[in-house]
Specification:
Elements (H helix, E strand, L loop, with lengths): L24 H12 L6 H18 L3 H12 L7 H8 L3 H4 L3 H9 L3 E6 L2 E6 L1 H8 L14 H16 L5 H14 L4 H7 L5 H17 L3 E2 L1 H4 L9 H11 L3 H4 L3 E6 L2 E9 L1 H7 L15 E2 L13 H14 L1 H13 L6 E7 L5 H12 L3 E4 L1 H4 L6 H19 L5 E4 L3 H4 L9 H18 L4 E6 L7 H6 L2 E5 L4 H11 L5 H10 L4 H18 L5 H11 L13
Parallel strand pairs: 7-10, 7-11, 8-9, 9-10
Antiparallel strand pairs: 1-2, 3-5, 4-5, 6-8
Helix pairs in contact: 1-2, 1-3, 2-3, 3-6, 8-9, 8-11, 20-22, 24-25, 24-26, 26-27
Amino acid sequence: MKPMTKHSRAHELNEVVVNSENLTLLVAVEQIANLVEDSALSKEFFAKAQPCIDHLTQRLKITDTQAVILSVAASFYGEWCSLAEYASYMACRRLQMLHYMEDLMSLRKRRFIRIHNRNNKESYQISKEALEAIRKDKNIEPTNISGLTIVNFFERITMLVGQRKDEEITFDDFVEEVKDMMRENAALPFVATLKSYDLCDSDLALFLWACNMLVSDNDPTILPYDYEDLYDGAHGLMRAQNAVFRSKKSPLFERGLMCPKNEDGMGRPEAIELTAFVRNEMLAGLDVETESKESRGIISCSSITPKSLFYNPKEERSLSQLRSLLEPEQFDSICSRLEAKGLRRGFACLFYGGPGTGKTETVLQLARQTGRDLVQVNISDIKSMWVGESEKNIKKVFDSYRKLVRDSERAPILFFNEADAILGKRMENVQRSVDKMENSMQNIILQEVENLEGILIATTNLTKNLDSAFERRFLYKIEFSKPSEEAKRAIWQSMLPSLSEADAKMLATKYDFSGGQIENITRKQAVEEILTGCPTDIDRLIEFCNDERLDNSTARPRIGY
């Protein structure tokens, strides 16, 4: 099976012109793939393709042959192909491909190519990482896996688990990469303890798979279907592992790392779990014993859905600068320079403006775009009816955040949404205990923001009641106003692509809605179309707009409503 259709041999060697100027990785790969098809790897092919091959060898630090193999693999992207299929594409003898096995293994070791082995038949595919780097014209640098914290270590384990589930890597790849990580991080207490048990490959892989379930899902119990994605059919390890667990003679049991799951005194032979020793001691640095990431209010940047937002020019300029600041390399560099000047490293930002103007969604998209997790603080969870508890809760928020910043490769964003309740003006001559508690909380927050190492963003609808001490501590203060008519038109057309230019302009002019209000209307329109099975016309859309305004008058609504 060939990934490209021939067009009257238009790609023949004497008709393909290689332009070595302004070459990108993608163009070089594409031209090599075109030239090598049916070439039998002739001298004429190498003479013609050499400028592109040289470009790849210099940029990616690979050999000429590896550049050709990588280009062929890229042309079959998304498909697992055998050596026979690669040979057919290049019009080579199958036996000839055996000469290039060492180059294939080198590409595999560099993680440019993945190898899949099922029923003793190997197939090959370009890795997603290599393909994405080629597409973006970025050099593929070896991943630095040394000096990891326990958090970084399991971030990479989570990535490998995902790749194994998607069959991007084999069981052997999984084990090999895990062992590489352990070799490079031998001093990490978790790794040192794990190495002392001298587990076989199957037990090592399953144990880390189980640990990842606990870290990611806060679930210490493992059933057979939980780890069936780990093993290849070729290894037959799944059945063997199940038999060992049923016999209660697993080395994982004997070493006190896992044990049969018991519920109400009744054993379940198919269920196993991580022991208290693993949860409380080996994984202590991950705080997984009582809380998952979700229960601690941590939103992974990878889980945030991309969304198009539209701003007025002033907002766009301010947000563009903040977005640039939060880019990892830029942020680390600026923090280091500030520290060298004796200035604070932390950045506190305030987004203020009426409801529905995009403050919360902007924070989410900033986190996604800069690859930073979001620590969302629920104000109602912090406040307690018991004297002294609220102060402890707010201290716990900042203590936990400090730990996250210290253990994370990228500082997450600490997010106080609708923070009016804790950022208001401090009261004087207070007598009631609740008022004293409010002042005490605010003093703690002021001190923590002053000593912040990381990124804090607070949003508020009200600014007149903001304490001046808080105002001074926010380096970036960005106002979110109602969108301009041009921005509203863009929002309407973004949310309702079927809307004509004229209708979008009419709605933007007639209704002074925020982005949140426009989204409300489009959701109502979508629900009606689902219920009736009929498209919504402009007259019905206008009815929805009129219903959105509670006063039902023709006057423009007040800001924030």
